[in-house]
Amino acid sequence: MAEGILREWDEGEGLAQALLTLSDLQRQLGREERARAETQALFDLVLNALPDAVVLTDVRGRISNVNEASVRLSGRGAEDLVGSPLRVVFAGDVPATPWHVFDRSPASPLVLGADVVGVDDRLIPVSVSCSLLRDTGGRVFGALYAARDLRQTHGLVRQLEQAEARWRLIAELGDLLGRQLDARESLEETCRWLGRSTDAGVAVILATDLVVERVEAWPPDGPLAAQLAGLVHRSLGEGSALYAAIRSSRTVHAPTVQPDFPLLHAGGVPAGVGSAVVVPLAARNLRLGALLVYAADAEGVRQRALVEQAAARVALALANSQLREAVSWFEAAEESARFREELMAGVSHDMQTPLAVLLGSIRALQNGGDLRAEVRAKLYDRMARRGVQLRHLVQQFLDFSRLGAGQPIVVRPLLTDVAELLGRIQADLGGRRPVSLEVSPGLPPAFVDPDRLDQVLTNLVSNALKFSPPGSPVQLGARVRGDAMEIMVCDRGQGITPDDLPHIFEKFRRGSGASNVPGTGLGLYVSRAIVEAQGGELLATSRVGQGSRFTVVLPLKPRRA
């Protein structure tokens, strides 16, 4: 009996011990479960805190977990994604299983571009980083895919590309406008270029005080061609978009144009215009007009910023053209006033000497009743030569006025004995200074206007005498070369500088060394016009310090009509 009681006692104690052990196991399992739950919660917290979309797969490539960023990016709930193959989320060259990741990049991670498939099958550009998941023993049990949304990045890149394209177009427009000093000469090409660049109709309307002066449009046969052509020389009507843009210096943008929209006037717009933008052309406090861009489709004019920048460039070019024109006008007026002063000073100086000689000779004849015949003859000869000099001066100023009015020099060619004419000039001008004459033997007559040739040669010999040192000879000669006659006037004066030589035949132009020598600066200008009117040339060569040579080249035979 005692043995049975002891046996039951031992069995009861063993059961109690087993129960205690089981209780300890349950408590340990509970702690591990709580630890696992805490770890899972921490993992989920970290996973969901990541800004990138994260997708975890098992060894078969089935999705085992996703974070909230993945749900937002794909538009699908976690319950729809977990258990699905990876291809449900990613499209493109993304490894579908951990094995494929290992095969392509054993060391991980693998970074590549791909797309996330949205709920409506739209593709969202992403950058994907693929990494293998390993346990503590190094065995692969899955893969992690982290996807970064590139839509904002791509949007910024597109904006940068658009901005770069816009600035490139504006730079090209600046080059186009800069090819001409006057931007108005480039408006037709500007409209065509803008139209092709924006795939839209373009018009530049220039207006002063709201009165249209000029319209350039492209294409010329566009839906607004007739209305634009009808604006020229007319005042803009109040209430139109064009009037409002110019008057207020603000852009008028109509993304969708209704048939009754008063684009150019109150009558509305014709069919074929769905959208339009009118940008004022204003610069340097000037209202110059407007730039109109229109398209057939609603919302067709999308590049408003480009149109405004183009309008600013066109307006600045036009304003600069007006400024250059105003500056040129003032400079021309100032130069004209200076030339008039110099002309009057030169005229008065050139006429004083022959007038003084004429008046002195007349008084001598009046007061000298007992003058000998030879003295009277010299006085009459002197008066005649000075009268001819005055006639040449007057004729020169008349020729200058005729040329300034755009009228040709009148010449009356005759068969003329040039040798005899040169002899008279030598006798008339060589009284005080030596003037040598060398004429080729048998010099034939030339078909020229003798009075006009006398005027030219008198100018040339007079200049040679004025710009030569006292006592220095002046050479006058003539020869035949081919079908032309060459008449040369040479001096040994100070010469003409290389900078002045190309300009000596311009009106009012005098050499840098002529400041102390009286003159109007018209002699060579008129002389060249006279020679050219007879079908000839007037040429000049010179060396500083050695003298100058002027050559009149004239045809021997009359020109054919």
What does the average pLDDT come to?
Answer: 81
* Residue runs with pLDDT of under 50 for 5 or more positions: none
Number of strands: 18
What distance lies between the first and last C-alpha atoms, to the nearest angstrom?
168 Å
What is the C-alpha radius of gyration, as a whole number of Å? 50 Å
Main sheet: strands, sense, barrel: 6 strands, antiparallel
What proportion of the residues is helical, as a percent range?
A: 40-55%
Q: What structural class results from the helix and strand content?
A: alpha+beta
Q: What is the helix tally? A: 13
Adjacency order of strands in the biggest sheet: 2-1-6-5-4-3
Work out the strand percent: 15-25%
The outline comes out as elongated
Question: Summary?
Answer:
By secondary structure, the chain is an alpha+beta fold.
Description of the structure:
The structure is a single chain. This protein has 561 residues and is an alpha+beta fold. It has 13 helices and 18 strands. The protein is elongated and about 185 Å long.
